[in-house]
Specification:
5-stranded parallel beta sheet; 35% helix; alpha/beta; disordered C terminus; binds 1,3,4-trihydroxy-5-OXO-cyclohexanecarboxylic acid; globular
């Protein structure tokens, strides 16, 4: 936990999510990643979180960021790994090192799209899963993570 009892929430985005605003708006909405991060940050701050954001298109960098969260600390994580969700066991292994509650969020309804998107190799590591609700899904994830932490379920992975 950061100084003063503020809870640190990591908002981690993977491949191609820096292109929000240019990707198919029917699936991903028309807001940019910066706009998404601003909305989520504003909401999370109202729930007592300090937000740290990160995005990369490089799998190794994403893994190293997860290591930093695992070692450096944090109280909750929202992760949208993009297409890595569906096949990256390396990201799954790194996420397994993260001791705080994790929310897996997808803008689009992955369960209703192509067959290959229905698999998430991180699903069982997530205490919270939200998809198909656009940016509102992130706000819901913030609320559910805040509730988990308030209920004391965030300390030792028993929210998983
Ligand atoms: C996504 C869904 C993934 O299947 C896709 O590869 C993405 C975005 C989403 O937020 O809906 O890049 O994670």
């Amino acid at each position: 936990m950061a100084d003063g009892g503020v809870k640190v929430l990591w908002l981690l985005h993977g491949a191609n999510l820096d292109m929000l605003g240019r990707r198919d708006p029917a699936l991903y909405g028309s807001e940019t990643l910066t706009q998404l991060e601003r909305r989520v940050t504003r909401h999370a701050e109202s729930r007592g979180f300090e937000v740290r954001t990160f995005q990369t298109n490089f799998e190794g960098e994403f893994i190293e960021q997860l290591h930093e969260v695992a070692v450096g600390g944090g109280d909750a994580v929202i992760v949208n790994p993009g297409a890595w969700t569906h096949y990256s066991y390396a990201i799954r292994d790194a996420l397994e090192l993260v001791p705080c509650p994790v929310a897996e969020v997808h803008l689009s309804a992955i369960a209703e799209r192509e067959e290959w998107r229905r698999t998430s190799v991180i699903a069982d590591l997530a205490a919270v899963r939200v998809f198909g609700k656009g940016i509102d899904g992130y706000l819901e994830a913030v609320d559910r993570l805040a509730e988990l932490l308030a209920a004391g379920q965030g300390d030792d992975n028993d929210g998983r």
